[in-house]
Amino acid sequence: MANLDVTVKPLPTPTPESAPYWDGLRDGRLLMQRCTRCARLQFYPRSICRHCGATDLDWEEMAGTGTIYSYTVIHRAPFAAFKGDVPYAYAVVELDEGPRVVSTIETDDLDALAIGMRVTAVFDAVTDEITLLRFRPS
Ligand code: ZN
User: Fold this and answer.
1) Å from CA of 3 to ligand 1 middle
2) Does residue 88 have a cis peptide bond before it, meaning omega lies within 30 degrees of 0?
3) Measured in angstroms, how far is the CA atom of residue 138 from the centroid of ligand 1?
4) Is 110 helix (H, G, I), strand (E, B) or coil?
5) CA of 47 to the centre of ligand 1 (A)
6) CA distances to 74, 82, 132 from 77, in Å
7) Coil, strand or helix: which one is 88?
8) Residue ranges with strand state E in the chain
9) Which of 105, 133, 135, 128 minimizes the C-alpha distance to 30?
């Protein structure tokens, strides 16, 4: 296991299963896997359908809208690289299509956040290769 440099924010490492997801975010598109057998969506990306076990999955673009399912406000940085970010909102967002994703909510008014609030995807290009999915109030 590589040493963790706590002064640098970690970045995801795309895998063969998740590369289309990361490529989509880089292009400003939120893609999720849909099973061609049972037609259900799933997140996170993987090589088999978590509902029925099928291995034939397609990628489908989501609208990028949803609601805050749950959230918390982080006041203590998990490690040094995040010290400049606190306080910030960390949330479970339920997409309108159904899948839930974990991300941050970009807002200047943390007190206004609420469960059920409508949010819209934000594509945050943190490097040339990696774009992170975040949300902001709609
Ligand atoms: Zn399935």
Assistant:
1) 38
2) no
3) 31
4) helix
5) 11
6) 7, 5, 19
7) strand
8) 31-35, 41-42, 57-61, 65-74, 88-95, 100-105, 118-125, 131-137
9) 133
- 19: Cβ–Cβ under 8 A, 6 or more apart, which residues? none
Output the pLDDT for position 21: 98
**By the 8 A CB rule, do 90 and 78 touch?**
no
Give the pair of three-digit tokens for residue 18: 């998740």
CA distances from 115 to 8, 10, 47, 62, 93 (A): 31, 28, 32, 21, 9
Query: Which parts of the chain have pLDDT scores under 70?
Result: 1-3
Ligand 1 centre to CA of 53 (Å) is 6
* Sign (positive or negative) of CA dihedral 104, 106, 111, 114: negative
Residues with CB under 5 A from ligand 1 (ion): 35, 37-38, 49, 51-52, 54
| Tokens (6 digits) for 110 | 């943390």
pLDDT digits (tens, 9 = 90+) for 83-111: 999 999 999 999 999 999 999 999 999 99
At 48, the amino acid letter reads I
What are the residues facing 88 on neighbouring strands? 74
Q: What type of residue sits at position 66? A: G
